[in-house]
Amino acid sequence: MAKTKVLLLGAGFIADIHLESYQRFVPDAEVVGVYTRNGEKAAAFASKHGLEQSFDDLEKAIVTSGCEVVDICLPNFLHHQAVLTAAKHGKHVIIEKPFAMTLEQADEMIEVCDKAGLKLMYAEELCFAPKYERVRQLVHEGALGDLYHLRQCEKHSGPHSDWFYDVNLSGGGAMMDMGCHGIAWFRWMLGGRPKAISVQAHMMTVMHKGRTKGEDDSVVIVEFENGAIGVAENSWAKLGGMDDSVEVFGTGGVVYADLFRGNAAVTYSEEGYGYAMEKAGNSKGWTFTIFEEAFNQGYPQELHHFIECVRENKTPKVTGEDGRAVLEIMLAAYESAGTGRKVALPFHPKVAKPIDLWLDQRPS
Amino acid sequence: MAKTKVLLLGAGFIADIHLESYQRFVPDAEVVGVYTRNGEKAAAFASKHGLEQSFDDLEKAIVTSGCEVVDICLPNFLHHQAVLTAAKHGKHVIIEKPFAMTLEQADEMIEVCDKAGLKLMYAEELCFAPKYERVRQLVHEGALGDLYHLRQCEKHSGPHSDWFYDVNLSGGGAMMDMGCHGIAWFRWMLGGRPKAISVQAHMMTVMHKGRTKGEDDSVVIVEFENGAIGVAENSWAKLGGMDDSVEVFGTGGVVYADLFRGNAAVTYSEEGYGYAMEKAGNSKGWTFTIFEEAFNQGYPQELHHFIECVRENKTPKVTGEDGRAVLEIMLAAYESAGTGRKVALPFHPKVAKPIDLWLDQRPS
Amino acid sequence: MAKTKVLLLGAGFIADIHLESYQRFVPDAEVVGVYTRNGEKAAAFASKHGLEQSFDDLEKAIVTSGCEVVDICLPNFLHHQAVLTAAKHGKHVIIEKPFAMTLEQADEMIEVCDKAGLKLMYAEELCFAPKYERVRQLVHEGALGDLYHLRQCEKHSGPHSDWFYDVNLSGGGAMMDMGCHGIAWFRWMLGGRPKAISVQAHMMTVMHKGRTKGEDDSVVIVEFENGAIGVAENSWAKLGGMDDSVEVFGTGGVVYADLFRGNAAVTYSEEGYGYAMEKAGNSKGWTFTIFEEAFNQGYPQELHHFIECVRENKTPKVTGEDGRAVLEIMLAAYESAGTGRKVALPFHPKVAKPIDLWLDQRPS
Amino acid sequence: MAKTKVLLLGAGFIADIHLESYQRFVPDAEVVGVYTRNGEKAAAFASKHGLEQSFDDLEKAIVTSGCEVVDICLPNFLHHQAVLTAAKHGKHVIIEKPFAMTLEQADEMIEVCDKAGLKLMYAEELCFAPKYERVRQLVHEGALGDLYHLRQCEKHSGPHSDWFYDVNLSGGGAMMDMGCHGIAWFRWMLGGRPKAISVQAHMMTVMHKGRTKGEDDSVVIVEFENGAIGVAENSWAKLGGMDDSVEVFGTGGVVYADLFRGNAAVTYSEEGYGYAMEKAGNSKGWTFTIFEEAFNQGYPQELHHFIECVRENKTPKVTGEDGRAVLEIMLAAYESAGTGRKVALPFHPKVAKPIDLWLDQRPS
Questions:
Q1: Are D318 and D298 in contact (CB under 8 A)?
Q2: Would you say the ipTM is above 0.90?
């Protein structure tokens, strides 16, 4: 059986990770080309990674690359159009977080893929991160009794690309960028696609005030229908490298797991060295040296799963509906941060982008 | 100079810790007696610890024991009366958390001591815990830039004594019991007795539903006047032993510190052994073995400081005003948990006990 | 290009790990059958893992299975004959540790493969364990200056199969079983296949006296030509689960890395659960929960590398010569433990099995 | 009862620690003066710490200071004379490690104190370090079954004072300086003053070759009469701050404990700060921030114990005989490192200083 042909949309940080993951860990897939708006950047990416084709025209890329799968690693504001174009041409879609800028977009994205009989996977890698999946298995075995409180942190010192800081392009700040992980993971851990019933949130801009209107530090409390809560803490203002860690509390036990410092070799170097972990900064002195960063975060496993879904006609474990549900909770979080009120779900505000609910309503 | 004579009010878990702390680490103090409502218990405590006097009558104890200092380790609902009685007879007071059941009580307690020219210290041991104090020193040196986010967790599987579960005696659950620590510590770390301007909170009862109306799991977000926030997570539903840990985020760095697992020896025992740490449960298999538990939590340092204040006529670092400020924030937290709204401070509700603000208002 | 056909020799603990590694991570390989001396066990293994062929006749398996590669996961005393048979029939060989029982065997094994133009890889997975390889990369970058002291521990509570305890079948105890890892890794870390110049060792039998003559606790100090030392600590008497950890000391820095506790989620469970980590025992209470155990130890990477060597006619990174060098150092270690003397290398004793050098010489 | 008057001999790193320990934690003691060979240094030390007397004449200090106890924190080569002088004038003695340069000295030191009816304590603080003492208590409870293997590491980047590097003044390098701790602690943990029966050792000079003839990295394996071993690893070549850690292996369990990194707050600072831990170097980036360093190492507890012994006429837990036993094992370690042979005890070489056994015998 021939390899499944994948077109990569985007040539930034996350596209690099997807490409490495395909090439090292997904033997049934072949990345046949890359698109990004800047043709030179696309060509450079293709050249660096040995891809035969590069494109700066989205539709042409989708139509002519010979792909069966479109893997969307584009800035947030381009997600909607990219899915619509892929679906129009009969391509299966896997899409990076966050799913969309509005619920209307989300609904349309889901609908077009559904009508065309196409797979649509929401690429939440934490649902595949092996350490966290090990934890989920324990929970499934009953090791922790009933879960009542989850915590997920994802924090670093700020994103790699400028567009993240422009809320018109990103739709929001650190919570929009990283809170989506925690929120998706709470739903995944609790199982059965639990309904969120309310959200409380606090947001602020601490470190990047001159650069963005977006929040760079947030706390979100999501309450689910069975009473369990998830607390997502996210930041672009946290120095010293990436944090991705969880705490799981059940009536029969607890688990603490950490993907970065908790897996790392612990190094002291007078001279420093090339790279310790994502956003680590200087590597002189003590550092936490991470290894197999993509694997430990679940990217290869996620992509492997999607390619299998496409080849064997299975339903992805994480779908557009999950992406939409996360987006709805994030909308409620911005609303709560803006109004100071606990926001009940379902919540379907009419806004151009999530962060408006905070920016437009917060007390001066 | 003679030793300062201390009368201990209370003979429970915390009284044991205070007594050990005085005897081992506060050479200038002498515990001359103990009072508790149950005379047999008082006598047993005195006998066990070599105290000469025991009492079951509060006023008599204060008047006849010869004490200069009254150390209040009584259940919460007895705090107010105990301070009033001590002050009436001219005794300096150190009082365990939480300060009082109502702001009216708090104000009166402060006033009577003030008028009588007596020292009144609020015994927040986290302001003396040596690891946390080391962290505070770093912050003071500028190692972390400006603090913008603090987190403190204090969690275990539930209190030792029945009265904690009766909200009429305790005034509240896990947050009232332990959230006071985090809230006091946020103020202490930020320095200069910062004003809290708002509080958001979520509370629930998970594990002890049959036993208490009080919350046994809570998340409280306190916003201070300079924009920094403190997130206090507290639980009586957390198995596996005590957690007391902090995270400190500043614009120039971060610190993680943990008083229990983070100090412990890591032990594997097939047979088990007597005691691993507070609330650890079974000691077979792996355990985190804590040492010098009282010292590491700051109790001896706290009591040493107060005795020094008494002897050298200094102002305690943590006062009744601090205890009152913590109480006000806790009241706002119950109100927020009850109403789902962010509560602005100053906040002065008229209630018999803090938890009423949650119990009476929360949606069914 | 067709998949490379692999015949697995052995159906024990390590064969399971190799099989899982091939199936999940080595898409260019196909395991076509399994041999073990017990035909029923072979059939059961084949059935469990979906292999089409099972054998209880070694030569027949090699000749008729259609394999191009023989992967030897047999008890130590069968290594020599298995390699000779494989080479006789023109099969490439990858062989688990320890390489052989004697240097004479080792030399013959190397020679027959060499003469037949066959690949012979010594399957030292620590040379592929991703965390340790990350550490090696740092060292290569100069992050630690010059290495002068390495430590590797590999310890658990004793092997899975009875033959390990019979020194006639195993050739030695915990050091022969696990010290080979540390010793191979010292050579790999120092680079350039450094000559060992002397060995000091201490061995004892602590926990399994009734079951084996073999040592179940050992310390080995290997001195290399540049003056650097490696200290290998190995045990079959260490409770609480597997330990595989390293310390690397250089003139410019240090690294600490741990493959089990150092990667694990930290779990507390009242009920317990199925499996925490290799040899963990009971999973009630606190446990260190490991994930992707084979991947984190380097097995898939090791097998992937060998299949690539076969397919692309490359030289394996770890060869029969390396296996022999490790064996020589282990012989010197038994000699040192037996005589109390530092043993200089080259060292070529005439013994039937390594442990005789300790058993026959040690003072009663 | 009046305070016990202590004269401090020495004004270096360890004298500072002793002084702080007395002043903060030993209320029954009063340091009445300090002696060091350099009068200006003595005066500066006295002034800094508020001591009334300083001396540059040893005998005069002992005779005129009014002391009852002499606390010896002098360089190694001065230990013998200091004890003799103290005993001559009827002073109780507590003496820092290592006990003496030769067994002849040790015997005389013990004898003179014994004859004069004076207390002589060997100040091994690890016998009082609260985390390690907690571990010892577990062992005593039977939590680990029978101990068979102990490991103690003490490593840093090199001593504070020049005399350590001159082997005529120190008697040896890193092992003499720090191996004494591990060796004393092995005996203490095993209990009952167990006889050491043999020693194997490896030593080398790695980082400080231009500065000292002494070893700056060592591994020592001590075998005790019941078969248990202790492995002491010591270094002056280990960057990144102090390491003091232990591993305890028994037939019923294991313990890992670490006094520095294992107690520390974990800090990331862009600007750095004053002090992270002993020998930590630069404090920018990640550091392990230790707190209550003296307390956690056991100094106050050790001194408190000795003062109690003096006041209540008790026998110190660690005596001159213990110091002598440690010295004998260190002599055997140098002999083993020099000859490559396991050295049996009792071992009573006639040398001017321990390291001669290594320097004079090792192969070039």
A1: no
A2: yes
